[in-house]
Amino acid sequence: MTKIIDADGHIVEPRTFWQDYLEPKFRDRLPRIAKDSDGIDRIAVGDKINTNSIYAPAAMCIPGGLAAPELARRLSWDDLRPGSYDPHARLQDMDSEGIDVSVLFPSIGIGFVAIKDPELSAAACRAYNNWMADFCRVAPDRLYSVAPVPLHDVEAAIVEMRRVVKEQGVRAVLVRSNPYNNRRLSDPAYEPFWAEAQELNCTIALHAAVTGDMPTAGFDRYHDFFQRMIISHPLEQQMACMDMICGGVLDRFPRLRVAFLEAGGGWIPYWLARLDEFHDKIGYMVPQAKLKPSEYFRRQCFCACEPDDLALKAATALGVVEYLMWASDYPHYDCQFPGAVEELREHCAALPEDSRQKIMGANAARCYGLS
């Protein structure tokens, strides 16, 4: 029987997270949930409340929440599905969907890795990872946290990665695909981090986002949430993929596993074909990449897409069966709930049985090192 593994689900940090897990001296400096003068939940830092966002932050975490602007305005963090923050409720939602294992990413916490202050970023990641250790302890064979690490400070990121892997059993760490300190992921500064991840057998999960003060594709040209979401996710992942491969990271660390998330699966065949074409013609310009880019990707990389992604129906023709995974994105506004696994089965129905097994769970098990 096929094991169903959700390669990219999310939690939503509850109101109590900041009080219960963050060290007191950092609480006034870290983004948190607070109500504005109209009683609308917003993101706040200290006494400053961001009232300029186009939607109440809670709306992003409620299916359909962004579809109706007035509804989005009224939504509160208290309207979140309990499965967003309560592990017992999450397991009930997984059971109702038929999901055996969920690999879990932050919501607000994705912005923790974008904080440039190394001490604050490290404290935020540490607090989140401690909360998730308690969350996953309820069902350690079904709930797996992907731990954010403060990569603006490479040594601090190594320390936190080593801690969560050895003390909490974490299988993957969260890295944004954007440049840290204006350094691309192929920068020599990250070499100790990749080396330690390989030694720890810890997967690097590259997750796109539009939050935080990091260089982001399209932000110089577009200022609306819609355009930024459309552009930044795939473009940042494509550039990160190129940097990891053509910059020689995957050549120097052949046992390092990398997952590309939150950008769909259709870009992979096009991007690898384009990289291969240029590698064939002017590959001398990237001497660090000794193999074809597509060979590195097939050897070490994975990509997740949501159940309605066209790449699923065409997976065999596109040649992505060996590394394509599925992701619910639960409980964010664009997820299909209930019905994610039903939709997944529908889109995979035309594939051979062994291909369905790989996409529904086996590839994710390999990606994240799950038994």
Q: What can you see in these coordinates?
A:
It is a single chain. The strands form 2 sheets. An 8-stranded parallel beta sheet has the order 1-5-6-7-8-9-10-11, with helices on both faces. A 3-stranded antiparallel beta sheet has the order 2-3-4, with no helix packed on it. With 371 residues, it is of the alpha/beta class. The chain has 14 helices and 11 strands. The mean pLDDT is 92. 40% of the residues lie in helices and 13% in strands. Helix 4 runs parallel beside helix 5 and helix 5 runs parallel beside helix 6. It has a single domain, classed as TIM Barrel (Alpha-Beta Barrel), CATH 3.20.20.
Question: Can you describe this structure in just a few lines?
Answer:
The protein has 371 residues and is of the alpha/beta class.
Question: So, CATH architecture?
Answer: Alpha-Beta Barrel
Radius of gyration: 20 Å
Number of separate domains: 1
Overall pLDDT level = 92
**Spans where pLDDT lies below 50 across 5 or more residues:** none
Strand content: 5-15%
- Main sheet: strand order: 1-5-6-7-8-9-10-11
What's the N-to-C terminus distance?
15 Å
Helical coverage, percent range: 40-55%
Based on helices, strands and strand pairing, what is the structural class? alpha/beta
Structure annotation, total helices: 14
Largest sheet: 8 strands, parallel
Q: What spatial form do the alpha-carbon principal axes imply?
A: globular
| Corresponding CATH superfamily | Metal-dependent hydrolases
Give the total of beta strands.
11
Order of helices and strands: EHEEEHHEHEHEHEHHEHHEHHEHH
